[in-house]
Write a structure and sequence with these properties.
This protein is mainly alpha-helical. It contains five helices and three strands, in the order H-E-H-E-H-H-E-H. Helices cover 40% and strands 8% of the residues.
């Protein structure tokens, strides 16, 4: 019986936490963490390099559909309702197979001293 609803079989809506450990173990082939050199952090943008293929694991196919346009890892995990760690393992599999590409969002460094001075003055005026 579920504590949240008092009804058998009804579970609270908590992404990733209600998935059975067996299911998550099966999704990743027993891996709970990705390799240390995994390029995926929460804001890494993922882009599909192809369409899903027949016979592909359903989560891999879902990732390819979700990433037709650049999508952050954290968004993919949320849409799949999977823990980020599990999502990173799945993304690493797709990257190794050449089915997705990954890149970090570009950050432009502000090095102009005049702009930095204006920001500092603005902060002081707060």
């Amino acid at each position: 019986m579920s504590r949240a609803s008092g009804q058998p079989g009804n579970r609270p809506n908590r992404p990733g936490r209600d998935d059975s450990p067996d299911r998550l173990y099966t999704l990743t082939g027993g891996r709970s963490r990705s390799a240390p050199d995994n390029p995926f952090d929460l804001v890494t943008l993922v882009v599909a390099e192809c369409d899903p293929a027949l016979g592909m694991q359903s989560e891999h196919a879902a990732i390819l559909r979700l990433t037709e346009r650049p999508t952050a890892v954290v968004e993919v995990a949320a849409m799949l309702r999977l823990p980020v760690g599990i999502t990173r393992v799945l993304l690493a599999d797709l990257l190794a197979a050449g089915l997705v590409s990954a890149r970090h969002p570009r950050r432009t460094a502000i090095t102009d001293p005049d702009i930095l001075e204006q920001v500092l003055v603005g902060l002081r005026n707060l």
